[in-house]
Amino acid sequence: MSGKVYSILTGRKLAGKKSFAVLIDPDKVSQKRLDTLISLSLDSKVDFFFMGGSLVLTNNLNECILQIKGCCKIPVVLFPGNPSQLSPHADALLYLSLISGRNPELLIGQHVISAPAVKQSGLEVISTGYMVIDGGAPTTVSYISNATPIPADKEDIALCTAMAGEMLGKKVIYMDAGSGAKVPISETMIRKVTENISIPLIVGGGIREPETAYRNCKGGADVIVVGNAVEKEAGLIKEIADAVHSVPVSA
User: Fold this and answer.
1) How far apart are the first and last CA of the chain?
2) Phi, psi for 19 (deg, rounded to 5)
C-alpha cells in the first residue's frame, strides 16, 4: 500500500537528496510549543513530521496532527509505539516490525491485532524494518520492546539484518539508537547498511548536533530523525535542517 509519502521518500533517495524529520511526542508537547515547532519547521524547510512515542499517556495525538495540518503541508507520518497510536488524520504510517529483536509480538503479533484498525483508517502504510541499535544507555524503546539492541560495534549484524528486512519485503529500514541514547549510530554502521540495501534508510536516536546529522547523511542515511534534542532546544531545527540539506547531492 505505497502512496504519496513513500513516493517522496524514494524520489528523494533516487535524486540523492537527504531529508530531515522532526519527531514529536504528543504526550510531551503543548499547543503553544507545537506552534513554535511548526513555525520553525516551515522556515527551515523540514521534510517530514514524525508523530509518536513509546507510551500513550494522553489523547493528544489527533489534536496535534490537526494542528499541524491546519498550519502547513509538511507530511505527517505516524511512528507508533503500539497499535493504539493511530490517527486517520495523518498522511502515512510506519508499520514497524522489530527485525533486530526476537520478540514475536513486535515482529507480527501486534500487527495481527492492529490490522483491522489500520485497514479501516485508510492510512498509507509503509512496511518498515525497525532496528534498535545500542546507544550506550538503556532507552525506553529497548525496555518496552524487551529486546536486546544490536551492539554498536557489530556492523555486520546490522547490515545482515537490514538485508534480510529488505528481502522479506520491507519498504524502509529504520535504525534507531532510541530516545535518550548517549551516542548516535556510527557512520561506519550506517555506511555498511546503506551499501547493501536499495530501499530508504532512516536513522535516529542520539543526534544532538548538526555535525552529527551531516556525517550520518554523508554515511548514507536518507532521512535523519531528531526528537529529544529539538524538544529541549527548538532552535536546533534550523541548524540540523541546514546541515542535512547541505549534504552534496549524490545522484
Assistant:
1) 27
2) -125, 155
Query: Would you say 140 and 96 are in contact if contact means Cβ atoms under 8 Å apart?
Result: no
At residue 3, the pLDDT reads 85
Three cell numbers written together for 90: 495523518
> Which CA distances in Å does 202 have to 63, 68, 97, 221, 230?
26, 22, 14, 6, 18
Q: pLDDT below 70 — which residues of the chain?
A: 1-2, 55-57, 251
Give the chain's domains with CATH numbers.
4-245 (3.20.20.390)
- In whole angstroms, give the CA distance from residue 172 to residue 202: 7
What pTM does this model have? 0.95
Residues in a beta bridge with 111: none
CA angle 53, 104, 173 (to 5 degrees): 55
Encode 146-169: b = buried (16+ Cβ within 10 Å), e = exposed: ebebbebeebeebbebbeebbeee
Residues paired with 138 in a beta bridge? none
pLDDT tens figures, 93-104: 999 999 999 999
Distance, CA of 164 to CA of 140 (rounded, Å): 25
Rg (Cα) of the chain, in Å, rounded? 16
The DSSP output letter for 105 is I
Q: Which three-class secondary structure state does DSSP give residue 19?
A: strand
Alpha carbon distance 177, 180 (integer Å): 8
SS3 of residue 133 by DSSP: strand
